[in-house]
Design goal:
- Helix 2 runs antiparallel to helix 3.
- The chain is built from 3 helices and no strands.
- It is globular, with a radius of gyration of 16 Å.
- It is mostly helical and 102 residues long.
- The longest helix has 29 residues.
Amino acid sequence: MFDWMVWTTPVAVFFCCIALMLVGMTVWEVKSPTTLRRGWLPIETTRGDRLFIGLLTAAYINLAFVGVAGKLQEWLSLDAEPSIWWGFGLSMAALLLLMRKG
C-alpha cells in the first residue's frame, strides 16, 4: 500500500513530528481552550489555525529545499547535495516562529 512512498529517515521523522504535534495540540486544546489572537499574520488566529498554516509552510519549505538542493551544491561548490536535515531544521524553525509570533 505504501510502496509508492520512499520512506527515508528524514521523511519518517518529519511525519512522526507532525503526528506528535497533532496529538499534543489536541491534549493542549482539551486542557486549555484557545482564544483568537492577533500576531503578525494579517488575520486573527487560534493555536490550531497557526499550526495548520505552519504545517503548510513547513511542507513548502521542505519541497523548496529538495528542489534547490542540486543548485546549492553547484553554487556553494559542495562535494554532495546538502543534507535534507537542513530543510527539516528550517521548516521546524519556521513552524515554531509561526506558532509563537503568528
